[in-house]
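Form 12-C: Joint structure prediction
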Amino acid sequence: MCAAGRSSRRRAASRLRKTKMSDDKLLPLRQKIDAIDAQILDLLNQRARVAQEVGHVKAETNAPVFRPEREAQVLRRAADRNPGPLLGADIQTIFREVMSACRALEKRVVVAYLGPEGTFSEQAVYQQFGHAIEGLSCVSIDEVFRDAEAGTADFGVVPIENSSEGVINRTLDLLLQTTLTISGEVSIPVHHSLMTASGKMEGITRICAHSQALAQCNAWLNQNYPSIERQAVASNAEAARMAGEDQSVAAIAGEIAGQKYNLQTVNAHIQDDPHNRTRFAVIGRLRTAPSGRDQTSIVLSVPNKAGAVYNLLAPLARHGVSMTRFESRPARMGAWEYYFYVDLEGHEQDEKVAQALEELRQNAAFFKLLGSYPLGL
Amino acid sequence: MCAAGRSSRRRAASRLRKTKMSDDKLLPLRQKIDAIDAQILDLLNQRARVAQEVGHVKAETNAPVFRPEREAQVLRRAADRNPGPLLGADIQTIFREVMSACRALEKRVVVAYLGPEGTFSEQAVYQQFGHAIEGLSCVSIDEVFRDAEAGTADFGVVPIENSSEGVINRTLDLLLQTTLTISGEVSIPVHHSLMTASGKMEGITRICAHSQALAQCNAWLNQNYPSIERQAVASNAEAARMAGEDQSVAAIAGEIAGQKYNLQTVNAHIQDDPHNRTRFAVIGRLRTAPSGRDQTSIVLSVPNKAGAVYNLLAPLARHGVSMTRFESRPARMGAWEYYFYVDLEGHEQDEKVAQALEELRQNAAFFKLLGSYPLGL
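Section 2 - Result
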C-alpha cells in the first residue's frame, strides 16, 4: 500500500500544480464574474422591492399573487430578447426562479399535487411555480381538487394525459364537476424502457404496454423486435406487473413501474420521439387573463345523432378558431353518451374565440369552460 | 344551467373588472420590473461570455469545467452579501441555475445517478448541478460508480445515508474500492408517514420501521401511540411490505414505499425534526480544492484490540480537528473487523488537517481518503 500511496500522492500533487497554474490565469476572470454577480444580486433585490410594491397594490384590490399570464409574458420576453450566448431555455429556468423568489415575498404559494413527493408531479410543480413555494403532496387526484377548492392550497397540479395510461379519466371526471378552472399546463419529458424479469429477451413472446406507449415506440419495435407479438393492456403499470409474473412477457413502461415489479431494463429510451412528454393541468380558483399566446379548454356534449358533433363544432371553423386537441369519452351518467374535451387556440376574451364559445354554448346540450391559460413554454 | 350560467358569468365579469382596476395601478410597476429584467438578462449574458473565456483557459490547461469549491464560494458570497429582501436560500437557487447555464456553454456536465428518473436522487442532482446538465439514470449504485469511473459520466450522485435504511451499505462498500473521490454532499428533506392498509389504526398492534426512522419519530409516537409496540425491521420498505400483508401492522415509511404496497396514510410528516434529510455523495474523478468551509471524509481500520480506536483518533484531538461524523461497520472480508467512516471539519490541504491525516495514515492498518469537499449549503 505504501508505494501505491506515494504514487497516488504524486499524481495528486501534479494535478494540484496544474490546477494552480490555471487558477493564476483564471483569477482576473473570476473577479470579473464576481463583480457581475454583485450587480445581478443588487438588481434581483431591486426587482424584489418593486415586486413588494406590486404586492401592496394587489392586497388593496384583493388581486391574486400568482398571475400565470404575467409570468408567461416575462418568460417569453426573456427568451425572445436573449442575445445569447446563454440558451433561451436556461434563461427561462433562471427567470422562473427569480419570479418564484420575488413572489414568495408576497406569499409563499401553496400547491397541492398528486404525490408521492419526489416524483414527476412534484417536478411539474417546480416547473410551473419555481422552487420558492410550499408543495402539498396528496394521495389522490380527488384530494388535490378538494384542497384547491377548499383553499387549503392556492393551486393544484394534476396529471391530465400521459403515455402510460392515455388520458387520466379521474382528472377529466373531476374537471367536469369542479368550480376550479385550468390556469396553466405543464409538460415533463418521459421515457419508455423495454423491461423483463430477467433483463433479457430470450423466451419473450409478447410485448405489453398501454396502446399509447406501443404507438410511441412503434418504429423502434419494428426495427428491433418485428416478429414479437404486441398486446395493448390497460396501463404500462399493468404491463410491468404482468412481466413480473410471466417470463414470456416484456413490458414497455417507465423505470418507476419497472422498479416496483423488480424488472430489469433491456433497452432504455425506446420511444420514437425523444421529446415525448406527460401533461399536467394547473387548477385553481383564479381565472387567467390573456397572455398573448393562450389556449382554451372546454368540455361539451350533444345528443347522439348523426352529424351532431360536426354541427356542434361548426362555429369554430366559422370564426377561424383552431382546434388543437379533441378527445371524446363515454359519459358515465346523464343524458349524453359522450363528453368532448376540446382545446382551442386563443383566449376566451379574444373576440373570435368569445363569439365561437358563445355559439358553442348555445348549441351544446352541455357546455363547460375549463379555462383559458398561457400556452406551455 | 341557464341562471347558474348567468350568475357565474356575472361573477367572472366582476372579477375581471377588479383585475382591470388593479392592472392600471400595476402597469408602471411592471414596466419597472421589465426594465430591471432587461438589465439582468444583459448581465447574465455578460457573465456567460466571461465564463466562456474561463472555459478557454481551462481547455488550455486541461482544467475541469466543474469546480465544486468555486461554485460553493459563489453561492456563499451571494447569500452573505445579500441585503434582502430576497431570502438567501432563494438567491442561492437562482445563482445555482445561473452557474449551471454558464457552465453548460463550456460543457453540459453528465451526471449519473441512482434512478429511476423523477425521484429524490434526480432532485439531488439538480440541487448540486442546476438544471442545465445531462442526467443519466442508472439501475444500481454499482452502475453509477462504473459510469463515473469509465468517464461515461463526469460525476455520480449516490445515496449515502437516509432515514429509511440508515447508511447505504453498498455505497460505503464501493467507496472503499473506487478510484473516485467525493467532491460534494447534497441533502434532500424527507418526510415520514404512518401508514396502514386500511388508513386507520383500529386493530393495529405493532408499528414497524427501520430503527433510525423509529428514533426520528420517537416523540410523536410517544404522544400519539404510546401503548402500541414498536418493532425495528431492516428498512422502511420492508415495514411497508409487512403492513401491506398484515392488518395488525402499521409502517413508518415514505410515501413512495407506501404507494408501492397500496398503503393509506394515517398521519403524514410525523418525524420529530421537520428538517429531516437524506444525504447523497457526489463522486467524481476530480480532487476538489479548498473552498474555505470544507469537510473531509476518510475511512480507516485498526486491528481489534482494546483502546485501538481511541488511540487511532488521538491525532485529531491533538491537532484540533473536529470530527463531525463517525460510523463503524463490520468488514466483510480482509484482516480487520471494522471499518470506520469518519468526517472531519476542514480540507486535506489545511495545515492542521494535513498533519492529522498524515498521522492517521501512519497509525492505521488501512487508510483511505475519500475526499475533501465544500460543506453542504
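Section 3 - Comments
Chain A has a mean pLDDT of 87. The domain at 193-267 of chain A is CATH 3.40.190.10 (D-Maltodextrin-Binding Protein; domain 2).
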